[in-house]
Write a structure and sequence with these properties.
Strand order of the largest sheet: 6-5-14-15-16-13-17
Strand content: 25-35%
Radius of gyration: 21 Å
CATH superfamily of the largest domain: FAD/NAD(P)-binding domain
CATH class of the largest domain: Alpha Beta
Number of domains: 2
CATH architecture of the largest domain: 3-Layer(bba) Sandwich
CATH topology of the largest domain: FAD/NAD(P)-binding domain
Helix content: 25-40%
Structural class: alpha/beta
Amino acid sequence: MVTIIGSGIAGMCTAIALHQAGIPAEIYEQRKTTGDDAGGQAHLGLSRTVAIPALTALGLKDEILAGGFLVRQVEIRDHTNQVLNTFQAAPEGNVGITRAELYRILHTALEDRGITIHYRRALHHITPQDTGVRLEFRDGTRIHTALVVGADGLRSTVRAHISDSTPGVQGPEYGRWWYAHGITDHIDTPTPPDTFVVIRNQNTQHAFGYLTLSNIGTRWWLRIAAPARHTMIRPDNPADRAELENLAPNDTAATIIRNATIDMSSYNADCIPPDQPWTDQKHLALVGDAIHACIPSSSQNVPLAAEDALTLARALRDCDTQTIALDRYERMRRNRAHRALIAGNPANGIDAGPEYPIDWNTPITDHLATTTEQQYRMPTETASVP
């Protein structure tokens, strides 16, 4: 039995992949509900070349396409609304989806596969034993399991236990930006159909992104390059709304913010550098934001979480021992995630590397792990986070 800590996107994807590999798994979640509204109406970008293939390998393509919306191109504009560059999506268009809708799809997939989520189970302690580990939860529950997968996000309890025995494990770092996002209904924007627009500030690294959909409204985010906020934006506070308007890169962005609905929030964009241990090589492994959290505007977190899930499940399916599986999983993923996150910032001048081997029927061999590790190796001089 594999025990997954956390029922976010990475945790649910991992449970689905393990089920596909014939490996039983259960999820333990500290919250009291499914979290369908986690992240609310914030939208996620899913590329046809990376995210959709990974979600297809999990058997979720039809549901994702039905629940999402098309994004055919991205426009980069300056503060005068002059188009600086246009990036065309794949011929079929990329896919946008709300976080709440993606949660709903994944949770339905768990139910269809008979995978259990235990709610109100906050992990407290992990004790190594000869044949696995003993988990103790804050409600007094104790279980024994062969493998613990930490899908418990930025402040992962599982990562903290790996750091007790493995040097080099780091916690979250503030990623230089904080974000606000929201929805604005019934407003005209100078935007072609199915186009995501990014407006850059003339003198700062601030940026504003928005997508207007006829049946939903305008979904937007504001990225601010500044020290971390100690208090978050309150949508019902006129002073907070005025602050966001003043930070907007031009009048178009300010108008969208000024007319935003109540569904508006903000957060500090903390990151986890992925170039550190992903497992303890015995009984603990990390997936998703617990090991490679990235700034939201890079659109990397969902595809990387799905790739983590597929790679770990295939490694456990194909390898003779759990120790070998964890070693190959880490070798397959560490450089891949690091490179993808760095490539998410065009200023770094790094490409994302070759197509990642996500084919479900391709065995995770030692040769594949070595080849993948080498293909995604980073140049020696580059930043650790985007």
